[in-house]
Amino acid sequence: MDYRVIGRATHRALLHRQSRLGGAAASGCLAALLISSPAWSFCPAALPARLETLLRQDRSIRWSIAIADLEGRSLFRYRATEALIPASNQKLLTTIAALKQLGSEARLQTRLWLQSSQQVLILEGAGDPSFNRTGIDALAAAVPRDRYSQLIGLDDPPSGYWPAAWSALDRQQGYGAPLNRLILLENAHQLTLQPRALGQPLGVIWEDPLDSQRWQVRNRSRTVASQAAEFINLDRDPLRPILTVAGQLRVGSESEPVAIAATQPGQRFLEAFQRRLQSAGSSVETVRLQTSWPSGDRTLLTTVDSPPLRELIRTTNEDSQNLYAEALLRWLGREGQPDPVRDRRAADQAELRQSLQAIGISTAGLVVDDGSGLSRRNRVSAQTLLEALLWQAQQPTNQTLRASLPIAGSGGTLRRRFTNSPLRGRVQAKTGFLTGAAGLSGFADLPNYGPIAFSILANQPNATNLGSRIDRLVNAMAPLSRCDR
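That's the D-alanyl-D-alanine carboxypeptidase/D-alanyl-D-alanine-endopeptidase sequence above. Prediction below.
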């Protein structure tokens, strides 16, 4: 399977594609082998030997593993304090810190102001990653029908759009969309690729019809026979709205949703708002972005609230949505509406570390380069993740976090893993995957033991099956029993 580009900025499309093509994401075969063997239970004292036997089969992999019951009693540790690349397990730290600092009902607020003396509208972005056309409509409904000289958008400077370590390729894709204060439709252009007749190019359908006018598409894709391999390549010109679509899908197969990052997210937001005002009978002569407030008095016209933090966290973890995680990290650093606007990425990263330290979580070896885990500069140990999970398990907001985690064999990025395992429906955990790095951290309700917390991180350059090896370790814990009962 060769799938180089994912859409919708999440692991979801990748896992869907891997499952459809028979990729390595599904762990059901390994679980089935375990189930086909005679079942037996074992006491906690036997768990280390059982897991170490499996680890010896993968000596080339760097592991960091920490497992404990919810009372904090250790069940297994293997290089638990070694900090590795966590991939999207980083989102656990971001969302736990956000719940602790902001509360589950906190909301971001996008505000619209009017300078009546100048007939200027001022849009104050809040970095709401969920902002969509409904929000645009709500803003427009508050604007008196009139002629306006200017629409000003207060936004972050482009220098803060991405962490420095994000690759140029990642910055082009929907999963690597830029972070700013004026976010619209996840700062991504969504499109669908449709197989056609054998030998024909794939159909390219833009979700926003205006995108088809803005973008030039060089279509080098094709529809192939039902036995052929499937893959998609998207290449976006970094300076011009030119998209090259390459790759192939099988004739009669499902359409494939993909996405590319918006090149000018703030300008895109303003232009969409300008068009909506025009359709409502108002006119705006010019639009522009700036990073500081214009001089003069202003009157608040309306405020558009984001969904509560608990819903944003659910999207962050369940779908492994990178932009949402970066927005939460920015929110942590700003603690509200900033004024003036400025690039605070370093302060955001420091705030996450300090938030974890404040609740007694070990940050030895911790390197925070982003909130999502897409950066390869991040370093986290399994011990840090386990301590964060155990702390969260004792908090009133624990159910909020648990509800955000994918469920084995059922929901989110785990829906196609553990499908034939006795742990199906019993594992709620955050997945993580980058080339050469994978992780799974969360909770498991073992049939004969009860709830545990665990973190398993694995790093190995160029490895392609780290996820299945992690699943094998988790499945090996299934027969654990409380022998004192």
